Amino acid sequence: MEDLEIIDQSDNPARNRPFIKDRRLSARPGRLPVLGVGAALLLLTACQETGTQTGGAVQGAPPPPGVTAVVLHPHPVPVVTELPGRVTAFQTAEVRPQVGGVIRDRLFTEGQAVTAGQPLYQIDPASYQAALASAVAAQQKAEAATASAQLTVNRYQPLAKEKAVSQQDLDTAVATLRQGQADVAAAKANVETARINLEYTKVRSPISGRTGRSSVTPGALVTADQTTSMVTVTQLDPIYVDVTQPSSALLGLRRDLAVGRIQGTGAGQAEVRLVLEDGREYDHPGTLQFSEVTVDQTTSSVTLRAVFPNPDGLLMPGMYVREKLRQATDPNAFLVPQQAVSRDSRGRAVVQLVKADGTAEARPVTADRTQGSKWVVTDGLSDGDRVVVEGLQKIRPGVTLAATDLTEEQFDQRAVAALPSAARQTR
Q1: Are 343 and 278 in a shared domain?
Q2: Are 118 and 106 within 8 A, CB to CB?
Q3: Is the backbone peptide bond immediately before 65 cis, with ω within 30 degrees of 0?
Q4: Can you name the residues that pair with 79 across neighbouring β-strands?
Q5: CB-CB neighbours of 422 under 10 Å
Q6: Same domain as 224, residue 121
Q7: Is the sign of the CA dihedral 394, 397, 400, 404 positive or negative?
Q8: What is the pLDDT of residue 2?
C-alpha cells in the first residue's frame, strides 16, 4: 500500500471524485508514453480502414439487382381436359350351351387368349349323332316314296290322255307326289337341325379375346339356354375408356368454339392420352369415339368414350385412369414457366414483367390450366413481354433491374440440363 497515493481532485469541476495513483507507474515514466502511442496508431489505422469501407459504400451506388427474364410469344396450344375414367372391355361374351348334355372335355386353359370359333367345351355327342342318323334315314325314306309317286304320275299322264285311267286317279297320283316332295323337304330340315345340334355339342367362342374362369368341369351336366354362363370371353384389344365431363365445362368449350376463341380439332381428330394409376403415361394414344347426347341428372355430367389400342394387355377392365382429352386448340396462348406465376391475396395469378425502363411491373393474368411444367396463359400478356423467372425476391418497387433475357427455347434447354441424368433420359 506504500506505492498507492490518493489524489484529491475536488478543485476540478469535471471530476469531483478522488482517484488512486500508482507510484510504480510514476517510477517508470518511459512506458506509458510508448503504450499510448501504439494504441493511438492502432486506433488511427482502424478508423482509416472503416472510413475507406464506409466511404466506398456512400460514394459508389450499389449495382442493380440481376434477374432472368423469358421473352414470350404466343403459340397454338391444345386445349387439354384431364378427366377421371374407367377402362371398359371392347366386347364381352358370356358363353352358354345351346344343347343339353354332359361335359366331356374342356378344350382351353383358363386365362388364355382364344379366337372366334375356337372350341371351348365338348358335350357328349352320342345322342345327337344318333338323332342325325335317324333324320338322314327319314329323309331317304321320304325321297324313296317321292320317287315312287313320281313314277306313278309319269305313267298316268299319257294314259289319262287316252282315257285309259280316270282323271281322278291322275289327280290322286299328283297329290301323292306333292305330299312326298313335302315330306322330303321336312326330312331335309330335320337332318339340318340334327346336324346343327350335333355341331352345338362343341361349344365355341363367339369372339376373340381372353377367357376367364370356367364355371363347369368335365362331367358336369348342362342344359340349353341355362342362365349360368360356362365361361366369359373378353376382348381387350382394342379397349374402351369411359370418362365423365361436367356439362358446364362442355358448354364453356362449345361457347369458346362458337365465338372463335379456340379452334376445334375436327371429326375423328380428337387425340386422347391416358395417365395410369401409378402416374405413368400410357404409350399408345387413343381417339374419341362418341359423346352421350343426354346429361346424367344425378351428376350433371356427360359420358365420353374413347378407344385405345391395347396390344400388350396392360389396360384391364375396371382399371381407374385419368384421360387427357384434346378437344380444341387455342391459337394465341402463352406458355409461362410455373415459377414465374404467383398468387395475390385474392387468389389471382400474377407475373412480374420487366418494362422498357428496366423496372418491374406486377400484372394479373388468366392461367387456368397447365401443360407440362408451364402455365397456359390465355389473357393478360402481349407478344414480346419479358417475364421474370429467376430473382423474383430481388424485385422492389421502382428499382431498376439488370435483366438477362432468354428465349423460350433457351430457358427450356437450361431446365432440361438442370435435371438429373435419369430424368433427362425419361424426357
Answers
A1: yes
A2: no
A3: no
A4: 328
A5: 8
A6: yes
A7: positive
A8: 46
Q: Are residues 324 and 175 in the same domain?
A: no
| DSSP single-letter state for residue 59 | H
Strand 239-246 versus strand 342-343 pairing type: unpaired
Asked if residue 367 and residue 252 are part of one domain, the reply reads yes
Report if residue 215 sits inside a domain: yes
Contact 125, 198 (CB under 8 A): yes
How many other C-beta atoms lie within 10 A of the C-beta of residue 377? 25
Give yes or no: residues 269 and 195 share one domain: no
What integer pLDDT is reported at residue 203 of this predicted model?
95
**Cα–Cα distance list, 6 to 18, 68, 215, 267 (Å):** 7, 72, 120, 112
Helices and strands (H, E) in the chain, number of each type: 7, 24
The three cell numbers locating residue 197: 345340334
What's the pLDDT score for residue 369?
80
Predicted pLDDT at 130: 96
Mean pLDDT by 10 residues, the chain (427 residues): 48 48 47 46 46 46 86 86 88 94 94 93 95 95 93 90 88 93 95 95 94 93 92 93 83 67 55 86 85 81 88 90 80 89 89 91 87 86 92 87 90 80 51
User: Which pLDDT score, from 0 to 100, does residue 30 have?
Assistant: 46
Burial class, 367, CB count within 10 angstroms (exposed 0-12 / middle 13-18 / buried 19+): buried
The answer to whether residues 392 and 258 belong to one domain is yes
pTM greater than 0.85 (yes/no): no
CATH number for the domain spanning 144: value is 2.40.50.100
Residue 409 located in a structural domain: yes
C-alpha distances in angstroms, 96 versus 210, 211, 285? 16, 13, 35
How many structural domains compose the chain?
A: 3
Using DSSP bridges, classify how beta strands 75-88 and 113-114 pair: parallel, antiparallel or unpaired.
unpaired
